Recover the amino acids of this structure.
């Protein structure tokens, strides 16, 4: 069981006189839950997602981002830990957050020429496994860490040569193929360069594929549904539902539209306005919103306030 | 005009060199003419920005760098059956008429001070001759320089409807006290409907000053491709030029360099469109790190008679350190309106959003940067036909990345 917790999160653009974007966001996402975060453009949804993942362009001025991991979360890592752990994500680098199980599906994924999908994804998976070991060892004290260092790093002065790592090439090919089938992706994707020349829909599918490979505890999906035709929308929704059911991932889904929520039904809906969450409810709230629009929320909130 | 005077080199030096190599009279005369011309010749063109001459070739101390009679090297010259891969001396013995016809036909020995110096003083070289309709893969010329200076000459002749893919590489062997100088001239002639891919890998040690000029001529439907990889040397001036003289002729000029520490690279890629229906694609990618510097000049010159020209040029320099410096100048000169052309050059650092994307997938900063740099070279590596060149350049890049602090 994992829980991502945002407490009173305030943030601004990281530059002199940077604009304030978040004004006290509170949110909790636990394993197996599906949350929808909705709101008009500029309300702070994407910023919230980027701050969770550690984007350097934003500065957190107040509040905290915590990740609670129950001890059962470490069993697969072969590490024995006696107590539940809480991590302050704001102290960690993006790759460390990812290793702990945070995943961000980008609204606009980077296009990286010259790096094949298969190489990128295997490197990512091995980096995650390796980094997890390090993070948990750091937490458990020096003695264990030294032992593991001796065992693990003799042959790899660089952090993760592409030819090495826990998951070998053959094993990874198998894994990748399975996940691609699930998302109805052509196997040729494996040899293409990361997002380079991908259509908008292919990029979104690829984000879900990456989540399926990395098996996150909490996945933040930033407009994963925008620009998808109905077939792709269904593939992507299947991928998200499989993450919840098979991996137990908690999902925070940022969207403008009710459409994807017909396929991925949220347990909780949060509506954001001007850097705060102003209204919360269940799946019905999203339907109401679709009918009445954000003006309804605005009137409702500011009248009662 | 140069004011350099060579205490160590005079007419008797050239005569002795030519005699020891058993050369015919015409070649000696060509050498002596080049020697005579030195005092009137300028140094190769280099880019100048306000207040700054990026590469000062005139400032080198040629007197102490040049020692033609002490030249020493190891050389492999290998190729498949059906194609002749000869040392220059053998080639002059066996094919004097061919050499006399072709020598200096692509590069005028008196192009500049350094080409003339190289012509007067070269003591070693290779001739690759591909007869009509012969296809040759994997011709390799490997030079290990063991002396203070080495002047090298290469001639590649591909006859009608033949093809050849070759690699020529330079390294340094035994150490020498002080600085060294390597000079290489390469002439490539592709006949009608012939194809040449000339790849080079320069990995001289960082005490060596390096001057190379490679020029190709493509006849009707002929194609000359160059792949110019530079990793070594203290300073390199490397120019690659193709003359598209035949109707429908083509060229690709592909460059890759990786500078670190205090290395200096001055790279040129130039194409002269001189007939109808010609195509050129110039692609150069370079990385600079530490205090290294790079300067690139690309020229696409479309002549008056070059109807229906296609000409494309892209150059990208990636800076890995704040102390490195780069300049790039892509030039397009069009004298025939029936031309489709593009040219661009960029100098920049590793993209921050790419880094964040990779970080968000658990990939640590160092690994992410290395992957991006290796990926950056891929469009260049994909063009290379000789495995040894691609594999070895890739390995050089990886070793450099691994050795970063």
């Amino acid at each position: 069981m994992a829980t991502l917790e945002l407490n009173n999160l305030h943030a601004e653009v990281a530059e002199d006189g940077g604009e304030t974007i978040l004004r006290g966001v509170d949110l909790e996402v636990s394993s197996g839950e599906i949350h929808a975060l909705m709101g008009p453009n500029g309300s702070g949804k994407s910023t919230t997602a980027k701050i969770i993942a550690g984007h350097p362009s934003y500065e957190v001025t107040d509040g905290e981002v915590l990740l609670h991991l129950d001890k059962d979360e470490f069993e697969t890592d072969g590490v024995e830990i006696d107590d539940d752990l809480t991590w302050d994500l704001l102290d960690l680098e993006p790759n460390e957050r990812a290793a702990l199980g945070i995943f961000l599906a980008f609204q606009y994924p980077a296009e990286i020429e010259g790096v094949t999908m298969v190489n990128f994804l295997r490197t990512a998976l091995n980096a995650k496994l390796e980094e997890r070991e390090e993070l948990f060892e750091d937490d458990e004290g020096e003695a264990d860490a030294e032992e593991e260092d001796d065992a693990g790093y003799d042959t790899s002065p660089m952090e993760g040569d592409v030819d090495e790592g826990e998951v070998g090439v053959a094993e990874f090919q198998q894994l990748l193929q399975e996940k691609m089938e699930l998302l109805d992706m052509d196997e040729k994707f494996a040899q293409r360069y990361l997002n380079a020349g991908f259509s908008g829909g292919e990029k979104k599918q690829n984000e879900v594929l990456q989540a399926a490979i990395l098996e996150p505890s909490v996945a933040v999906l930033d407009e994963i549904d925008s620009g998808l035709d109905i077939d792709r929308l269904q593939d992507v929704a299947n991928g998200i539902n499989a993450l919840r059911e098979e991996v137990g991932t908690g999902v925070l889904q940022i969207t403008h539209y009710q459409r994807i929520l017909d396929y991925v039904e949220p347990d909780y809906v949060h509506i954001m306005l001007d850097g705060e969450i102003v209204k919360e409810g269940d799946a019905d709230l999203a339907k109401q919103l679709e009918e009445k629009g954000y003006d309804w929320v605005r009137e409702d909130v500011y009248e009662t306030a | 005009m140069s004011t350099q005077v060579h205490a160590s080199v005079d007419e008797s030096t050239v005569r002795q060199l030519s005699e020891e190599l058993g050369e015919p009279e015409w070649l000696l005369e060509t050498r002596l003419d080049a020697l005579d011309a030195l005092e009137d010749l300028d140094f190769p063109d280099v880019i100048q920005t306000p207040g700054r001459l990026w590469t000062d070739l005139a400032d080198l101390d040629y007197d102490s760098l040049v020692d033609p009679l002490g030249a020493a090297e190891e050389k492999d010259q290998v190729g498949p059956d059906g194609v002749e891969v000869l040392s220059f001396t053998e080639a002059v013995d066996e094919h004097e008429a061919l050499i006399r016809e072709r020598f200096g036909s692509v590069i005028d020995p008196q192009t500049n001070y350094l080409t003339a110096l190289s012509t007067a003083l070269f003591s070693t070289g290779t001739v690759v001759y591909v007869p009509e309709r012969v296809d040759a893969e994997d011709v390799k010329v490997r030079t290990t320089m063991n002396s203070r200076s080495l002047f090298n000459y290469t001639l590649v002749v591909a006859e009608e409807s033949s093809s050849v893919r070759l690699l020529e590489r330079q390294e340094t062997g035994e150490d020498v006290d002080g600085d060294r100088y390597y000079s290489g001239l390469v002439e490539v002639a592709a006949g009608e409907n012939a194809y040449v891919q000339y790849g080079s890998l320069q990995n001289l040690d960082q005490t060596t000053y390096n001057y190379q000029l490679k020029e190709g001529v493509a006849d009707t439907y002929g194609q000359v491709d160059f792949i110019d990889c530079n990793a070594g040397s203290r300073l390199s001036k490397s120019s690659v030029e193709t003359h598209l003289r035949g109707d429908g002729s083509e060229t690709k000029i592909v460059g890759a360099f990786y500078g670190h520490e205090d290395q200096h690279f001055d790279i040129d890629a130039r194409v002269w469109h001189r007939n109808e229906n010609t195509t050129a694609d110039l692609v150069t990618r370079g990385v600079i790190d530490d205090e290294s510097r790079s300067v690139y000049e690309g020229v696409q010159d479309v002549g008056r008679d070059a109807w229906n020209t296609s000409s494309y040029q892209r150059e990208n320099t990636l800076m890995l350190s704040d102390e490195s410096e780069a300049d790039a100048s892509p030039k397009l000169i069009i004298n025939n309106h029936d031309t489709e052309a593009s040219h661009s050059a960029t100098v920049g650092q590793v993209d921050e959003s790419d880094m964040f994307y990779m970080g968000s997938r658990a990939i640590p900063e160092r690994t992410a940067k290395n992957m991006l740099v290796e990926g950056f070279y891929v469009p260049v590596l994909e063009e290379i036909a000789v495995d040894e060149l691609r594999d070895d350049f890739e390995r050089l890049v990886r070793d450099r990345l691994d050795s970063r602090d």
In short: The CA atoms of residues 169 and 201 of chain B lie 5 Å apart. Residues 11-350 of chain B form one domain. The interface with chain A takes residues 351-354, 356-368, 370-372, 374-379, 401-402 of chain B (CB under 8 Å). The mean pLDDT of chain B is 95.
